[in-house]
Specification:
Oligomer: single chain
Shape: globular
Number of domains: 2
Structural class: alpha+beta
Order of helices and strands: HHHEHHEEHHHHEEEEEHEHHEHH
Helix content: 40-55%
Strand content: 5-15%
Strand order of the largest sheet: 6-7-8-9-10
Distance between the termini: 34 Å
Length: 342
C-alpha cells in the first residue's frame, strides 16, 4: 500500500474513489527511482480548492493562483491548471466529464473564482470533507517526500570527490528507472563538457573569419513550455531534444513542430546511434503511414544522435581537471530544475 492509500484509509475513503486514484497517478514521482516526471501544477490547483472546501469558502482566481505559487516549487506556475488543464487531464485519465470534473467555475463579488466540485467529492456516497482532507494531506506528504529526495540527490553530488565517484553518479542517472529530470541534467552537463574547447571559424566572408568557441545552453526546465527544445548549441544554432522513446512518430512530429528544422537527439537507450537511426527508419517504413520520400526527408533532419553509449564515453574520458567544474554545474542545474533557487 502506498502513502496515498494509507492517507485515504485514515480518513475512511476507499481506494476506488476517483480522486484517490488520480492522486496515486500524480504522485508516482515521489519514488526516488521513478521514471515519472514531477508535475505540480494540477496537484496544487486541486490542493487549493480542496483547502477552500474544508474552510467553507470560495476564493477568487487570482488568490488561488497566488496560494499555488507560494507553495514549495510553485513560484513559476501559470494559471492553466485552474483554467482547464486539471479538468482536461482528469477527464482523460478517469474517464469522466461534466459535474465529476474537479474544478468548477464561479464568481466571488462579481470576480472570476474557482471551487471544487462537490459532486466529485461526494461521488459514490463518500464523505466530501473527508475526501477534501485526503487531497490536502496527500499533497503535503508528497511535498515532504520530493523535498527529501532532492536533498538526498544534492548530498550525493556534494559527496563526489573523485572521477570514480562521478562515474558512479552518471551510472545512476543513466539507469532504466532513473528520474527523467536527473537524466536530462546529467546529459546536459556531459554534452556541455563534450563541446567545451571545440571551436569553429565563422564570419561574414572568407577573409573575415573568426574563431568562436562552441557553447551548449539549456533552454529551461524538463517540463517547461519550450517547444520541445531542451538544449541549444551556439553559435551553430543547433537544437537538441532529450527523449526516452524510439517511436518514429514522436521524432517526425518534432520535426514538423519546428517547420522541418534539423534536430539533434539525446536518447536514453543503450544502443549504437547507427542502430537507433536504422530502427526508426525501419519502423516508419513498416507503418506505411508516410511515403518513402517523406521518410527520407525526415531521416535527413537527424543532425546528430547521442545515446547512452556516447554519454558514457564522454563520462569515461573526463579529465581530472573537469571534476570540480562538472560537480558545480550538476549542483546548479539540479537547483534550477527543481526551483531551489526561485
Amino acid at each position: 500500500m502506498g502513502f496515498v492509500e494509507e492517507i485515504a484509509a485514515e480518513q475512511g475513503v476507499p481506494t476506488s474513489n476517483l480522486l484517490v486514484q488520480y492522486l496515486v497517478r500524480k504522485t508516482r514521482a515521489a519514488d526516488r527511482g521513478s521514471k515519472a516526471r514531477r508535475s505540480l501544477g494540477n496537484l496544487y490547483a486541486l490542493y487549493v480548492v480542496a483547502e477552500d472546501y474544508i474552510d467553507g469558502k470560495t476564493s477568487r482566481f487570482t488568490d488561488l493562483l497566488a496560494r499555488m505559487r507560494a507553495l514549495p516549487f510553485g513560484s513559476k506556475l501559470q494559471n492553466h491548471p485552474l483554467d482547464n488543464r486539471l479538468n482536461d487531464e482528469f477527464s482523460r485519465q478517469m474517464g469522466v466529464d461534466g459535474d465529476l470534473l474537479p474544478v468548477r467555475a464561479t464568481t466571488v463579488g462579481g470576480l472570476k473564482a474557482r471551487a471544487i466540485s462537490e459532486d466529485l467529492l461526494s461521488h459514490d456516497g463518500t464523505n466530501p470533507k473527508a475526501v477534501a482532507q485526503v487531497i490536502v494531506d496527500v499533497v503535503n506528504a508528497y511535498i515532504d517526500l520530493i523535498t527529501a529526495n532532492q536533498s538526498s540527490a544534492l548530498e550525493e553530488i556534494q559527496a563526489i570527490e573523485t572521477l570514480e565517484d562521478l562515474g558512479e553518479f552518471f551510472d545512476g542517472a543513466f539507469a532504466p528507472n532513473a528520474d527523467a529530470r536527473l537524466f536530462e541534467i546529467a546529459s546536459y552537463v556531459l554534452l556541455a563538457e563534450h563541446y567545451r574547447g571545440q571551436t569553429i571559424l565563422i564570419g561574414s566572408s572568407p577573409d573575415k573569419l573568426e574563431r568562436k568557441p562552441l557553447a551548449l545552453f539549456r533552454t529551461g526546465r524538463t517540463n517547461a513550455n519550450d517547444g520541445g527544445i531542451d538544449f541549444v548549441l551556439q553559435p551553430l544554432g543547433r537544437f537538441f531534444q532529450v527523449t526516452e522513446t524510439l517511436d518514429f512518430r514522436k521524432y517526425f512530429l518534432d520535426f514538423e513542430k519546428v517547420n522541418r528544422y534539423p534536430i539533434s537527439f539525446v536518447i536514453k537507450v543503450d544502443a549504437d546511434k547507427e542502430d537507433v537511426k536504422a530502427r526508426i527508419r525501419r519502423d516508419a517504413e513498416r507503418s506505411e503511414q508516410y511515403s518513402e520520400e517523406t521518410i527520407s526527408l525526415y531521416m535527413g533532419l537527424f543532425e546528430e544522435i547521442f545515446t547512452l553509449k556516447d554519454l558514457q564515453r564522454v563520462a569515461e574520458n573526463l579529465p581530472a581537471t573537469a571534476l570540480e567544474r562538472v560537480k558545480e554545474e550538476l549542483t546548479l542545474q539540479f537547483q534550477l530544475e527543481y526551483g531551489l533557487l526561485d
